[in-house]
C-alpha cells in the first residue's frame, strides 16, 4: 500500500483492559469486513492501514462493538515499516511502545468516565491532597535517621 500517499492512513485501535473483546476478536471482525487494507494484531489491539475513507468506515464499525472501551489514534508508520520494525532494527520494543503502554494504563479511567456519562451518573473528582513541603529541619532529621552520628 502507499505509505507515502496522502490518501492512506495507518491507525492503531487500542482495547481498554475493561473491553470484553480481545485483540484476536477485533482482528477477526476487521478481516471479515473484507476490505482492501493491511492489518496487524498487537498485544493492545490492531493496526490498520488503508485508504482514509475505508479507515473511517472501519473506525465507525469498530467503535460500535464496544464504544467506551476501544480507542484509536493515527500511527506514524504503517504496519511492517522497516524504519521501526523490530526484525530490522535489532529487536527490543519498537519506537513509541513505552508511551503506548503508558496510554494503555490510563484507559480504564477514561472508560469508567465515559460509562458514567452514558449512564448519566454524577462524576465526582477528588481534590488531590496537598502535602506539606519539606523544611530544613525535616531534611536534617531524615539525614540523621539514615546516617548515624559518629
Write structural notes for this entry.
With 150 residues, the protein is α+β, with helices and mostly antiparallel strands. It has five helices and four strands, in the order βαββαβααα. It has a single domain (8-118), classed as Alpha-Beta Plaits (2-Layer Sandwich). The chain has helices at 23-31, 52-63, 86-89, 97-118, 136-146, and strands at residues 8-15, 38-41, 45-51, 70-74. Strands 2-3-1-4 form a four-stranded antiparallel β-sheet, covered by helices on one side. The longest helix is centred in the C-terminal third of the chain and has 22 residues, at 97-118.
What distinguishing features does this structure have?
150 residues; alpha+beta; Alpha-Beta Plaits; four-stranded antiparallel β-sheet; 5 helices; 39% helix; flat
Helices, strands, pairings?
Blueprint: E1 8-15, H1 23-31, E2 38-41, E3 45-51, H2 52-63, E4 70-74, H3 86-89, H4 97-118, H5 136-146
Antiparallel strand pairs: 1-3, 1-4, 2-3
Amino acid at each position: 500500500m502507499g505509505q507515502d500517499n496522502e490518501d492512506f492512513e495507518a491507525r492503531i485501535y487500542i482495547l481498554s483492559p475493561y473491553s470484553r473483546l480481545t485483540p484476536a476478536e477485533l482482528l477477526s471482525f476487521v478481516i471479515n469486513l473484507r476490505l482492501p487494507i493491511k492489518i496487524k494484531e498487537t498485544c493492545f489491539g490492531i493496526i490498520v492501514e488503508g485508504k482514509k475513507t475505508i479507515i473511517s468506515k472501519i473506525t465507525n464499525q469498530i467503535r460500535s462493538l464496544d464504544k467506551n472501551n476501544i480507542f484509536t489514534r493515527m500511527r506514524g508508520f504503517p504496519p511492517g515499516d522497516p524504519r521501526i520494525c523490530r526484525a530490522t532494527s535489532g529487536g527490543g520494543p519498537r519506537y513509541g511502545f513505552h508511551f503506548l503502554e503508558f496510554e494503555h494504563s490510563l484507559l480504564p479511567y477514561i472508560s469508567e468516565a465515559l460509562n458514567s456519562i452514558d449512564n448519566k451518573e454524577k462524576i465526582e473528582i477528588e481534590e488531590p491532597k496537598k502535602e506539606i513541603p519539606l523544611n530544613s529541619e525535616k531534611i536534617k532529621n531524615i539525614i540523621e535517621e539514615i546516617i548515624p552520628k559518629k
